[in-house]
Every structure is written in structure tokens, then in C-alpha cells.
Amino acid sequence: xxxxxxxxxxxxxxxxxxxxxxxxxxxxxxxxxxxxxxxxxxxxxxxxxxxxxxxxxxxxxxxxxxxxxxxxxxxxxxxxxxxxxxxxxxxxxxxxxxxxxxxxxxxxxxxxxxxxxxxxxxxxxxxxxxxxxxxxxxxxxxxxxxxxxxxxxxxxxxxxxxxxxxxxxxxxxxxxxxxxxxxxxxxxxxxxxxxxxxxxxxxxxxxxxxxxxxxxxxxxxxxxxxxxxxxxxxxxxxxxxxxxxxxxxxxxxxxxxxxxxxxxxxxxxxxxxxxxxxxxxxxxxxxxxxxxxxxxxxxxxxxxxxxxxxxxxxxxxxxxxxxxxxxxxxxxxxxxxxxxxxxxxxxxxxxxxxxxxxxxxxxxxxxxxxx
Length: 371
What we know:
This protein is α/β, with parallel strands linked by helices. It folds into three domains: 14-82, no CATH class; 89-185, Winged helix-like DNA-binding domain superfamily/Winged helix DNA-binding domain (Arc Repressor Mutant, subunit A, Orthogonal Bundle), CATH 1.10.10.10; 194-360, Rossmann fold (3-Layer(aba) Sandwich). Helix content is 37%, strand content 18%. The chain is built from 14 helices and 13 strands. The chain has helices spanning 37-46, 51-63, 76-82, 89-102, 117-121, 128-137, 156-165, 176-185, 206-218, 235-245, 281-292, 305-309, 313-316, 348-360; strands spanning 14-19, 22-27, 31-36, 111-112, 141-145, 170-174, 194-198, 222-224, 248-252, 256-262, 273-278, 296-302, 321-323. The strands form four sheets. The chain has a five-stranded parallel sheet with strand order 8-7-9-12-13, with helices on both faces. It has a three-stranded antiparallel sheet with strand order 1-2-3. A three-stranded antiparallel sheet has the order 4-6-5. Strand 7, helix 9 and strand 8 (222-224) form a beta-alpha-beta unit. Helix 6 packs antiparallel against helix 7 (156-165). The longest helix is centred in the first third of the chain and has 14 residues, at 89-102. The protein is globular, with a radius of gyration of 24 Å. The two termini are 43 Å apart.
């Protein structure tokens, strides 16, 4: 592997520094990169087809103003898995529409098409020309050569072929139909600063609750906790209404150990005991309700055997943030400067903060908090 080129994208436009056992440099494509010596030894062979996902990971963290995370041999797989590629062609097309809409300063502006756009939307480079062709055929976007004044009227096959040869020489803008589609993809609560937290509420989970709240607040959002809210009437009206107002929700799927509790019962035909603990059905209900509204759900769960084994099949495939008891003892979220030497999150609050900022960006609430 050429020491004068980026280990992830191959770019030679970088400032390369050797720092201890880690390779750390700034790349024009990947932004801030930090790789351990051991990880560096396996990247070119074992992860050749996944380098672009590692590049996207570094680029997204830097652009989201998150501290760099060292790519170690032991965390490469985890990082790759965290970079979710589209599950369908429709999802890929929607990602592109959202990307072009959010990056258009004004309606009608032409956006220079950067071949590195595929990293921002986490879509494989080879798929991009065909996806852009589909969007053009559906009437959602218009393309033109960068040095031209008017749109390119060539047939779709020619456009796709041209994009494969010279992607950097095109400019793109959404059409009228494209803007309509963009607006339909943005939920009505896109500008909300509210985040509902679905979890088991009790004194036993107080530390977890505070850790989740701290992570949400540090990311610039306002957490909504059902048993801390002011409301009248049915609590479920408050819960469902709060979910509707949220930008996204956080759902903790931790399981409480089951136990049989004796109860007094004057009716001899009814049992004098009941089962407590176990899977929290309300969390699944609230997470499903949010999904039905089109909201993103960030999954968290205690990293114990009971909780992990009893995660339902439907949510086991989700990119869950697992936490330990030690990781909820401290809720302080370090600043960017404080994490320069060690960017890895040290507790649940930092894990959640990083996930939120990477997906949704920083919220509008400025939190003044010191350790």
C-alpha cells in the first residue's frame, strides 16, 4: 500500500503524519482519518471491497463535527456494519432526492456533481449513474454538462454512459416534480427538537434514563419522558401525541428479569400471583407506532444475556447501541477538543450523542453543561 496515498480512497491529496501506533492524516475525500498499525495491515486484502464504507464513515463523522474514531483491527467490522446501504432501489432514490434537496441553497440552483456524493449517501459508486438515470426518467431531476448552459437532452442510455465516464463534469438540480417528491419525503415534524424515549420507567432504570437524556440533550434535542410529562387524561394519549411531535425516537429494549409476585385476591377463582418483568411490550408498541409514522427509531439495549437473547427477531437486525452497567454510571459527553486523543465514545450518553448527530445533525438546543 502506497504510504503517500490515503489508505481508504487512494487520494494523494492528504497531510500524512505518523503518531505513535496510529496513522492519522487529513484526506480531501475521507476528511479526518485515524487508523491503527494493525488495522492498516489488513485493509488492502481483507477489506478491499469495504474501504469505501470506512471512507464514508470518516467523512460523515468529520462533516458532522464529531471527533475522529480510530479504526482498529477489532472494530472494523462494527464500523462497516454501522454504515447502512439502501435496502432497496426506492430507498436509494429517496436518499438521493433528499441529498440534492438539502444541498440546494436555492430552488433552481445547479449543484456541481461530485463523484464523492456516493460516500455522503452511502451508495456504491458503480450504482450512481444508473440511479441518476432513473431519477431523470421519472422526471425528478435535470442534468447538464458543467460547461453547458442548458440541460442535456440526450437519451437516458447516453446520459448513463456519459456519467460513468465523466461524473465530475455534470451539474444536477431537482425539477418541479423533484421538489414535490422532496417535500413529501420530509415529515411534517422535520424541524422538531423533540425526541420521545420509549423504555421501562422505574427506579431501577433511573441511571439508564439519565444517560439517554444526557446523550439526547448534548446532541441539541429535547427528550420527552412519559412519566416526567405534564398531562391530563389517558397517559397513552400523551405518549402517542409526543411520538407524533418527535423528530425521531429512542427505544430501549432492555429486559427486566422475570419473577413471580404474590398478590392478595379475595376471589378464589383468580390466581394469587402474577408475573412481573420480562419483555417490555410497550416499548415494541411505541417503536412500531413511530415506524408507522415514518420516524427513525434508535435502538438501545443492555448488553446482558437476558436482554440480547429476548430481542424479537424483527428488531435483532437493527443497528442497536448496546450498553453495560459501567457505561451508564457517567453521563458526561465530552467536547470535540476533549476527545481529540481518544474519539471512541466512553459511555452510553456519548454513544447515543454520536449516533444522533451522525444521522440527524445537531439539534437547535444549545446545552451549557460542564463536568
